[in-house]
Amino acid sequence: MKKIIAILLLFTFGLSSCEKDDICDANTPTTPRLVITFYDIANPTKTKNVTNLKVIGDGMEQGIVFNENLAVDDTLRYVTSGSTVSLPLKINDSTTTFKLIFDSLNANPAAVNTDVLKFNYTAQNVYVSRACGFKTIFQLANNDPFIQTDPDGDTFWMTQINLENPNIESEDETHIEVYF
Question: Which residues make Cβ contacts (< 8 Å) with residue 98, sequence separation at least 6?
Fold first, then answer.
């Protein structure tokens, strides 16, 4: 009988020393994206919804189109239009370039206007936890945090761009303000 009690005690102590599985909680903050909020140039205090805006990352052929009238499909990911877009920055580089194509679904190619934004930053890996590993946070450069170019040679559709917050540590705040 003493052996059975000893085995049960040993088994109980053995189980109590086990650790919980390391699972990263879905609510744990991960690498944040750059948040761009669009504003009405005629009324700078009001946000402005963007429709038919296509965003293409450098080196990519496909992009994301923001248009309220389309549903998800296999070639492009269509998202409901809004006044904010969140774009991922490259974690192993110091620059990321995006083409922002305004009125991209217009049947008249002359009405489509492309501006290119190149973001300059430093990246820092931050330890989150054993289960979640690391996330990367970004600091936009003090000098020239972004460079705007127009590959079409026409006018910029983004008439004014302001740096709101150079520290990209969260997606809960606007980092770049665009007026059009």
Answer: 55, 56, 57, 58, 87, 116, 117, 119
| Reported pTM | 0.81
In contact, 150 and 12? CB cutoff 8 Å: no
Taking a C-beta distance cutoff of 8 angstroms, is the pair 64, 79 a contact?
Answer: yes
Domain ranges in the chain are 23-179
Work out the burial of residue 110: count CB atoms within 10 Å of its CB; fewer than 13 is exposed, 13-18 middle, 19 or more buried. Answer: exposed
**How big is the CA angle at 86 (ends 81 and 92), to the nearest 5 degrees?**
150
What are the pLDDT digits (tens) for 16-50? 555 556 789 999 999 999 999 999 999 999 999 98
Q: For residues 98 and 118, what is the distance between their CA atoms, to the nearest angstrom?
A: 6
Contacts of 129 (CB under 8 A, 6+ apart): 24, 28
Dist CA 178 CA 41 (whole Å): 9
Residue with tokens 């008249």: 108
